[in-house]
User: Fold these one by one.
Assistant:
Number 1:
Amino acid sequence: MDKIDNKVIWITGASSGIGEGLSYALSKKGCKLIISSRKEDALQHVKAKCAHPDLVKIVSLDLADYASMEAKVVEAMACFHTIDILINNAGISQRSLIADTKLEVFKKLMDVNYLGTVALSKALLPEFIRAKKGHFVTVTSLMGKFGSPYRSGYCGAKHALHGFFDVLRMEHAKDGIHVTLVCPGFVQTNVAKNALVANGNTQNSQDEATKNGLTVAHFTKKMIKAIENKKFETYIGRGEVKGIYLKRFFPKLLHSVVLKSKVK
């Protein structure tokens, strides 16, 4: 196990939810943090609540702006002159049927969840190669392993992350670079409230499954352990995690189970 204490960690999507919870948990471990999102005011609030705000730097970031990623890496590297771990946590979900959803919504889901994450990781990759060390931790979803109605574009983007980062791990193991894919189930965040609906607006309502999910504190504790153990993949949730194994061994049964669950 490689203890995470005192490492330099860059977290995207740090203004709320899992990213915010990670910021608090990692600050308690003495980590030097670079926290990013589009919402600088919210990041200032998170920084102030960290155990060691003096060890927290803010780099505002919009994943949809691919062209800015190399400059953002330069800005982040200037904070502590090195980065040990990049936690790709930022993303956006979806709640709409395929037939009703505008193509622009699918594009936005890919831009933010997949291409933005790829662009940022690719921009940081040369620094990891030069240092002969580094750890990409990418928060995908159980929806990156199997599908569910109303989440088609979200599932597609999350599946794509698995393909990309599995290959990155293979190509750069020789450079001392590690990749961990974290697949959350239901966690008590605003992911459902912020999800895009068919016309591109936000849903603005919580769903029961998310409301009854793991607490962020419980989730982040398990996630940090998986990072320290350099797991290739980890699945964190409750009963919904069983879908991983049903998909692998009984895909038709999973199809029936998901349709009967009526989770939206």
Number 2:
Amino acid sequence: MSLLRFVARSLFASYFIAEGVKAVTKPAETAPDAEAFTSTITPLLQRVVPADVASYVPEKAETWVRVSGVAQVVGGAMFATGIGRRLGALLLAKASVLNLAISAPGKYATPEAKAHARPEMLRNAALLGASVLATQDLQGKPSLGWRTEQAAKVAEKKASAISSDVSKSARRATAKAEKKAKQLSKQARKQARQIGKKLEAVTP
């Protein structure tokens, strides 16, 4: 990983790590804002996941905030260091979804409240988009799908070349065999004529 990539990733991840530490240590500050989102998503997840897993779905908003904070700290560290960077970016993207939902004003919020919340919403939306893009970062290397396709094309070309060589060899062998057969046939006719002449000479 180049120095420029390391610096850029560290700058991007620093916000998530700082916010994650804050969420883990002081979840009560964000829990009231997260209550509306978690109260909706928790019952939905409990219905979707298997029954033996549903009991582990957090119900308290503070727990959700802490989980999001842990995801931000871990994801930020992974993305900044490059160790599991794409998985780290995925964790940041998932945490950004919760951050965006928390920053969204309520349905009955006043125009002033909506205007006040707009900058934070836009920031969280931008961070979500950047995180999603980061999950696709290949560090300038071709994707696995592209490499697989190119390998298949190379293998196909090699197989075609081998088949062409085999066909040429087969044609040469056939031509050589036909030439040899003609020579043997010519020699056999010549010998037959010679024998016939000898028989005519000795026959009264």
